[in-house]
Specification:
single chain, alpha/beta, 2 domains, nine-stranded mixed sheet, four-stranded parallel sheet
C-alpha cells in the first residue's frame, strides 16, 4: 500500500459516520487482511473504531495464508462485536449486550484489555445487522463517534443491506483470466455505480426473486425488491423499449454478466449506493505462484481513474 493510497483511503474513512464494509469479489480475496490493515492504521491515529462482521465464517483455516481463521488480532482498547463464547483467547470486558443473536448466542460489544485473537460474529440478516450497527454507533469514545468497520459481504444476498455505507472493494485478481479481464470487470462495476439515483415515488410494479413478469401490459418502471439476477435481468430487458426504468436497491445487489450489464445500465436507477472509498487487490495468482501485482494494479488504475485509491493488500 503506498502512503498516498493509504492517506487518501483513511481520509475518506476517518470521519465517516456510516458503516464501512469490506467486500470481496471472490473467496479469499484478502478482505480480512485489508480490514485489519485499515483498523491498524486508524489505531495509530487514535481514531476510535468498532470491528464487526456479517455472519460467521465457519472455516477452520484461511486458504489465503493457511492460518487458523479468522486472523483478527485485537489490541488493548479496541472494540469489537461477537458473542461472549468467542472471546476465550482475548482478555476483554463487555461494554454492552447488543440486540441480535447468531446461532442462538447473543452478540455483545467488547473492549480488549490485552492483545489476542478473536473470531468476529455478526448478524447475517439486514434488519439485525442494521440494529446492531446503529447500537454500536452510540458508544462514543472520549466524545468521538467510532468508525464502524464491517468485515463481510455487503452484496451477500442474505443481508441485502442498503442503508448509507462506505465500501472497500477487495479483489482477487488471480480469479480473472487476465489483467485486462480484471480491468474490464472493474470498469463495468464503475459504470454500475454511476447509474442515477431514483428520486420520487417508487414504481407500482415490484418484483422479487421468482416472481413472474406482468403478462397483460408492460410497465414503464419496475422495482426489483432484492437481488437482480442474470435470469431476471434478461427477462426484463426482453420487454424492450417500453420498459424505461429498472430500479434496484443498490448496485451491490446486481448479479449479472458484463454483456447484460452493458445493456442494463442505460435503464438502471438506484435507491442507494455505498461510497466506494478504495479498492484493495490481492495479486496472488491461483496455484501458489509468486504474486506479480504490477499488471493488475495498472489495469485497476486505468479502469477506475487515478483519483480512486488502489492498493495491494500484500504490500508492506
Amino acid at each position: 500500500m503506498t502512503s498516498s493510497d493509504l492517506t487518501r483511503t483513511l481520509d475518506r474513512i476517518r470521519n465517516c459516520t456510516d458503516p464501512v464494509f469490506f467486500v470481496g469479489t471472490h473467496k479469499n480475496s484478502g478482505k480480512t487482511t485489508a480490514f485489519m490493515r485499515i483498523a491498524q492504521a486508524l489505531s495509530e491515529e487514535n481514531v476510535p473504531k468498532i470491528l464487526c462482521s456479517i455472519g460467521r465464517d465457519g472455516e477452520a483455516l484461511d486458504q489465503f495464508f493457511g492460518h487458523r481463521k479468522p486472523p483478527v488480532r485485537v489490541e488493548p482498547g479496541w472494540r469489537f462485536v461477537t458473542p461472549g463464547a468467542a472471546t476465550a483467547d482475548v482478555p476483554c470486558e463487555l461494554v454492552s449486550p447488543l440486540p441480535a443473536f447468531v446461532d442462538g448466542r447473543q452478540l455483545g460489544l467488547f473492549e480488549a484489555r490485552a492483545c489476542g485473537d478473536v473470531e468476529l460474529w455478526g448478524p447475517p440478516m439486514a434488519a439485525d445487522l442494521r440494529r446492531t450497527l446503529d447500537a454500536c454507533a452510540r458508544f462514543e469514545v472520549d466524545g468521538r463517534r467510532p468508525v464502524l468497520l464491517v468485515d463481510g459481504a455487503l452484496d451477500r444476498q442474505a443481508a441485502l443491506y442498503h442503508g448509507p455505507a462506505g465500501m472497500i472493494l477487495c479483489c482477487k485478481a488471480g480469479a480473472f483470466a487476465s489483467p485486462d479481464a480484471f480491468g474490464a470487470w472493474l470498469a463495468a462495476r464503475r459504470r454500475l455505480f454511476l447509474a442515477p439515483l431514483h428520486l420520487g415515488s417508487l414504481p407500482n410494479t415490484r418484483l422479487t426473486a421468482g416472481d413472474d413478469l406482468p403478462q397483460s401490459t408492460t410497465p414503464n418502471e419496475v422495482l426489483v425488491d432484492g437481488p437482480l439476477s442474470q435470469t431476471l435481468a434478461t427477462d426484463l430487458l426482453a420487454l424492450g423499449d417500453s420498459l424505461l426504468r429498472i430500479v434496484v436497491t443498490s448496485p451491490m445487489h446486481v448479479f449479472v454478466d458484463h454483456a447484460t450489464l452493458d445493456r442494463l445500465v442505460p435503464k438502471l436507477a438506484l435507491l442507494s449506493a455505498p461510497d466506494w472509498f478504495a479498492t484493495a487487490i490481492n495479486p496472488a495468482p491461483s496455484g501458489g505462484a509468486a504474486p506479480e501485482p504490477g499488471p493488475s494494479m495498472a489495469a485497476a488504475r486505468r479502469a477506475l481513474g487515478q483519483e480512486h485509491p488502489v492498493f495491494d493488500v500484500l504490500m508492506s
